[in-house]
From TrEMBL, chains A, B:
The modification 4-aspartylphosphate is found at residue 54. Its main location: cytoplasm. Residues 127-225 bind DNA. One of its GO terms (molecular function) is identical protein binding. Keywords: Cytoplasm, DNA-binding, Phosphoprotein, Transcription, Transcription regulation, Two-component regulatory system. One of its GO terms (biological process) is positive regulation of DNA-templated transcription. The keyword Repeat does not apply. It comes from Leeuwenhoekiella polynyae. One of its GO terms (cellular component) is protein-DNA complex. This is Two-component system KDP operon response regulator KdpE. It is found in: Cytoplasm. Residues 5-118 form the Response regulatory domain. Pfam families: Response_reg, Trans_reg_C. Residues 127-225 form the OmpR/PhoB-type domain.
DNA sequence: CTTATTTTTTATAAAATCTTTATAGAATCT
DNA sequence: AGATTCTATAAAGATTTTATAAAAAATAAG
């Protein structure tokens, strides 16, 4: 397989250097931009396999860059931010960020998230069957199996799980989930979500009190892995 | 049912070993070949239920092997490749590959795809007789037997059951069923469906109150198994 | 033309699912 | 540490969906 190409949009030289060294030693091809304008231009000229985007850029906020990118760029965008600000995170994810990390971050974690994001973007398109350990979700047949046995799910439970499966290991915000599963206008009914995540966990988790698949991201949403 | 037999054509010993262990522990019988020539010979002498074919073989490209196989071998062929190359994928699928996976692959996913492929090849279009335990549905002769006795069905009942049989273990939505059996414009007549599913159950189920074949998927549709 | 069969409608009881409320516990913030 | 917000869970109530019988209408058969 060819080296995956990663574009880093960040104005801090230390971060740039750190990322470059780590990514290159992990066999990624690295391309760098220091401003929003430069980054967008580079992404447009030669679309990379993944973009790492800093929120605090000199010329334009990362949010704006993201929303601009998302008009035509479908591959993963991972957000970096010095702020551990919930509103910021939620807004970024809602705009279409694949993942987010707060500085300072652990390099190992970043690499893992990059791997996960790239893997997903490669298999997502044509994979009709999503598997996660003992779980198997067939998005065409609309059937969920656990240890090869069919799990009986209600329509809403299935829709919810399918949404998670399509966005494996990506944090989905409450708002986004509610909009996708219940429809526009239900975005404030967070309690629905809690109830249904609860019943899903009872059906798909080994131990629902210590979920391994449906992970709570407090204040933000949920993540499926 | 007998163990399904899988032929692996791959020259990398690690992959061979990995596949062998995983497949055998999932109750498949595994046969192995290390070259294209050997693989074709083995497939011809004793046709397996599925072939896993590596694209990068020492003596001949997997594409050639595939096209040669397809002259007489109709069962699933899953391609493995180190290249995540769209042109390659398209070309393989066009030559008749059932599925395509890039190395490194997740074992769970491969197993799921194998299951899906085998299931499809057993029931899909090419099968004119679908059997489910004591039931036998001959789609060419339009005859349904239960414990070897002919079941008398009306035209609509038969059309409905045939649709289910062609889509075994797949959830079909009300809308879809209505469109297929009654035609475009009947998609809201869900009650028809209930009535006919009811009468079908009386004819094909051991105990119509606890159906084993025609399963209700509340809020969505029905599933035949 | 009459009768039998099949399909469509209507009505209603039962089952399943979804929504809402209440409350206790966990996580996060100040 | 204490206050506040967020999360999990159970359970009651409301709503939707499903199953079934049976009548009415349409179609086919004799």
């Amino acid at each position: 397989m060819n080296k995956a190409e990663i574009l880093i949009i960040d104005d801090e030289p230390q971060i740039q250097k750190l990322l470059q060294i780590n990514l290159e030693s992990n066999d990624y091809k690295v391309v760098q931009a220091r401003t929003a304008k430069e980054g967008i231009l580079m992404a447009a000229n030669h679309p990379p396999d993944l973009i790492i985007l800093d929120i605090g850029l000199p010329d334009k906020s990362g949010h704006e860059v993201l929303s601009e990118l998302r008009h035509w760029y479908a591959k993963p965008v991972i957000i970096l931010s010095v702020l551990d600000n919930e509103k910021d995170i939620v807004s970024a994810l809602d705009t279409g960020a694949t993942d987010y990390l707060t500085k300072p971050f652990r390099t190992g974690e970043l690499l893992a998230r990059i791997r996960a994001a790239i893997r997903r973007s490669q298999t997502a398109v044509n994979a009709s069957v999503v598997t996660a350990n003992e779980l198997e979700i067939d998005l065409v047949a609309r059937i969920v199996k656990r240890n090869n046995e069919i799990v009986k799910l209600t329509a809403t439970e299935y829709n919810l799980l399918a949404l998670f499966a399509k966005n494996e290991s990506k944090v989905l915000t409450h708002q986004y989930i509610l909009k996708e599963v219940w429809g526009y206008g239900y975005q404030t009914e967070t309690q629905y979500l809690r109830v249904f995540v609860g019943s899903l966990r009872k059906k798909i988790e080994e131990n629902p009190n210590n979920p391994q698949h449906l992970i709570t991201e407090s204040g933000v949403g949920y993540r499926f892995q």
